[in-house]
Amino acid sequence: MFTALFLMTSELMSLWSQEIRELTFSNLSSQSIVVSWLTDEAVSSQLEYGQTLALGQIKVEPTAKKLHRLAVDGLVPDSQYYFTVTTNDSTVSSDARTAKVGASVPYTLYGQLMTSTQQPLSGALVTVSATSNAGTSSFLTSISNNSGFWNVNLGNLKVINTGAVFNHQSGAQLSIFVHQLPDVIFSHQQVRAGASPQKIVLPDFVLDNSLPPQKIGLIEVSTAGKLHWIYQLVGI
Fold it and tell me: Among 52-61, 139-148, 171-180, 215-224, which stretch is predicted with the lowest mean pLDDT?
């Protein structure tokens, strides 16, 4: 009885650990989409996609990981695509549309993730979106590097429902999320998966400060469930 219960519990834990969460489509262009998702344990996943529910095209991850992020390119502009992500024990399907041809004014937003011990946090998934009177944008994603820095180009934002260019401007609000973090070790101090950095460092000015708006101002910080900052683009 105990053995059977133990085996059942182990199987349930395996199913839970490979559960696919937070499937996200980001960095939309007229010919490419970045697909990302999370699993609680390091597993290898398979991404199938196509313009019909029959899918037909496959990408397979060569290594097991918790943070999964694949770029799919060679797509048709302004077209609907269907995606299915599969691990050994879990499958999730969704759809997304490629953007229309075009881009807004380049505008590099960047920041740095730090742990509570003031160490840079690498390998974290950062998701950025914008909201203005024009509506809500698609997502941009970036992975923090070994120094904890990440960057996105706001000129690549698209209108979430139409795929048209999203024109960022003064007054627009930026939502910046840090999703589940990988296990990383700094000076023998381990930051466990799901742990939150204590702060995010964003400069007052972006790399190209010749284009308005030049500054961003912090509005709100939320740590319920996931780390979330809201900033506002401010002209000077």
Answer: 215-224
Give how many domains the chain has, as a whole number: 2
Query: Residue 158: what residue type?
Result: K
Identify whether 24 is part of a domain: yes
CA angle 212, 218, 222 (to 5 degrees): 140
Last residue of a domain, one of 63, 97, 131: 97
CA distance 40 to 209: 40
What residue numbers bound the domain in which 52 lies?
Answer: 20-97
pTM of the model: 0.77
pLDDT tens track for 49-64: 999 999 999 999 988 8
Q: What are phi and psi of 2, to 5 degrees?
A: -65, -40
Order of strands, edge to edge, in the sheet holding 108-114? 149-153, 108-114, 199-201
Tens digits of residue pLDDT in 157-208: 999 888 899 988 777 888 888 875 554 443 333 333 344 444 455 544 343 4
Tokens 């398979």 belong to 46
158 shares its domain with 120:
yes
CA-to-CA separations, 61 to 93, 176, 200, in angstroms, rounded: 17, 27, 30
